[in-house]
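queue> pop job 88
queue> type: inverse folding (structure -> sequence)
queue> payload:
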């Protein structure tokens, strides 16, 4: 099972557009969390340098990475500094907590994804 983990840190105000784009594509296995951070630009004059961001984690098959990544970038981009980053990581192994078993294509992906 060649799987990847897409991690994207994006502006929190762009999350709704990204969510709609992923929903239109039928993307499953998405985790979303609120995070704080700063990148190349940060406002030293502000009392808090950390901006509000959203972190998306998408488990997907290797052959879906390019389409999902492109959709995230297109929906999240404003053209201003601080739009975020997207990283792609290989998944060595994946286990299902409920069963304790190593995931396979049959046990992890929905019927429509197999």
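queue> result:
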């Amino acid at each position: 099972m060649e799987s990847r983990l897409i991690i994207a840190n994006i502006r929190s105000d762009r999350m709704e557009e990204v969510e709609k784009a992923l929903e239109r594509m039928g993307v499953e296995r998405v985790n979303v969390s609120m995070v704080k951070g700063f990148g190349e630009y940060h406002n030293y004059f502000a009392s808090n340098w950390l901006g509000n961001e959203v972190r998306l984690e998408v488990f997907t098959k290797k052959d879906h990475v390019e389409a999902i990544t492109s959709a995230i970038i297109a929906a999240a981009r404003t053209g201003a500094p601080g739009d975020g980053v997207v990283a792609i990581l290989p998944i060595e192994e994946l286990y299902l907590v409920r069963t304790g078993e190593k995931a396979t294509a049959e046990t992890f992906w929905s019927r429509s994804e197999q």
